[in-house]
Design brief:
433 residues
């Protein structure tokens, strides 16, 4: 197994587990920084060895998006902000590059998927220990009270599981559990009951348990989208819609989301709409470079709670259009891979994992509509897996992906405008109500 690939897996594991927070005594050793440097060096050797085609244009968009985050802070007059942006956000973009360059076989794709599943299961068990046994409860459990009177009793109405690092918010952790589920399902095989029990059924039950403990309403949206996309593979639109409706009712009936309501009139949803309105207003005031990377809360009391609004507000139209181009290219390439004609088992496996990854990213974006996940490392790992699958296709006998497509830009612009219009419509609807 390649040295660069092993380093890539270790880099991703450290990114998810954040050893410095789990075990503060490890903080002085800068494990993540050391792994990043070693992985970058090993990846460069692979690049120079001709193991990469340099045709993954979403990677170029991601690197330019990193540049846009730097410019967004420099445009405020803080030249040192460029360094801050690099230190904070570059590891996520690096993860995309590392995966795209070093995960160059289907076996490596599956091993990476197993790592992501394993990390999610570890976080589920760790959180359950805090939820039920009191293990590091102050760090792993968020307590919420419905009123001041209830808070005085010391007994919260809702306890929500979380993790460390970029998964320290219960909603972000629930998103992680949701988007890794398509990978779990990709390991299903016909007439293999023991394999399916160990690799699919038990992990799915644990992940659903984890989502329940997070009390995340956004996860209900993600699970609903997941159910629809999976049902659409087997059923027509009406059947998929009915299946999805039944699934959504079941999730609410089982008190997923902590038993809280889902409504635009509910206080939390109203706060999000107000934040989106602030984001649009600041975009008008800072149209090119935005208000500055990570500076949204300097203009509003809470964060944007929408990855697209956060992006356009903080990095302006420059960063937003690059971000959308990155997503569009990644999704369109995966969509073509999903519908490629297969002639052998290797191509069938590539299509299977392209479908799983496509669903995973769509679920990420669906939950990201309510979360500030623009810069989340996990998104860039998934996009990197898409790059890896595209690279495998380009090395095949009959590739379905061919160079740069001008349609990417047109579709990206259309999606960018459509999202802004939708956000504006939701804000107007909320304010008029």
């Amino acid at each position: 197994m390649g040295f660069a690939y092993i380093l890539t897996l270790l880099f991703i594991a450290v990114s998810y587990l954040t050893p410095a927070e789990m075990a503060p005594g490890l903080a002085p050793y800068r494990i993540g920084l050391i792994l990043a440097g070693l992985t970058a060096l090993a990846s460069t050797i692979n690049l120079l060895g001709g193991m990469y085609s340099f045709q993954a244009f979403q990677v170029y968009a991601a690197i330019m998006f990193l540049g846009a985050t730097m410019l967004s802070l420099m445009a405020t007059g803080w030249l040192g902000g460029a360094v801050v942006a690099v230190v904070s956000f570059a590891p996520a973009v690096a993860a995309m590059v590392f995966v795209g360059v070093n995960v160059n076989t289907m076996r490596r794709i599956k091993l990476l998927a197993l790592l992501l599943i394993g990390l999610s299961l570890f976080l589920t068990i760790q959180g359950a220990m805090g939820y039920y046994l009191g293990y590091r409860e102050e760090e792993l459990i968020v307590k919420q009270w419905a009123s001041m009177e209830e808070e005085s009793t010391g007994v919260p109405s809702l306890r929500r599981m979380r993790a460390f690092g970029f998964l320290a918010d219960p909603n972000d952790l629930a998103q992680q559990f949701t988007v890794v589920m398509p990978f779990v399902l990709a390991f299903w095989r016909k007439r293999a009951p023991i394999r399916n029990l160990l690799l699919v059924m038990i992990p799915m039950v644990l992940l659903m348990w984890g989502i329940y403990m997070t009390g995340s309403r956004g996860a209900i949206v993600g699970l609903t989208v997941l159910i629809f996309l999976l049902a659409r593979e087997k059923l027509k639109w009406i059947g998929a819609g009915l299946t999805t409706a039944v699934g959504a009712v079941g999730l609410l009936g089982l008190s997923f989301g902590g038993g809280r309501s889902l409504s635009m009139q509910e206080g939390s949803a109203g706060g999000r709409a107000e934040a989106w309105g602030t984001g649009l207003a600041e975009l008008i005031g800072h149209p090119i470079f935005g208000v500055g990377y990570t500076r949204f809360t300097e203009y509003h009391t809470i964060t944007a709670h929408n990855m697209f609004v956060l992006c356009m507000t903080e990095t302006g139209m420059l960063g937003y259009l690059l971000f959308m181009l990155m997503l569009t290219i990644g999704l369109l390439e995966l969509h073509r891979l999903c519908h490629a004609k297969v002639e052998n088992e290797e191509e069938q496996e590539r299509v299977r994992w392209a479908k799983a990854l496509f669903i995973s990213i769509i679920c990420f974006l669906a939950t990201g509509w309510f979360l500030s996940r623009t810069y989340a490392p996990s998104l860039y790992v998934y996009l990197g897996m898409g790059v890896a699958l595209a690279e495998m296709d380009r090395r095949s006998r009959k590739p379905v992906l061919t160079g740069f497509d001008e349609g990417w830009v047109v579709k990206s612009l259309a999606a960018s405008v459509g999202i802004i219009a939708l956000v504006y419509a939701i804000v107007r609807l909320r304010w008029s109500g």
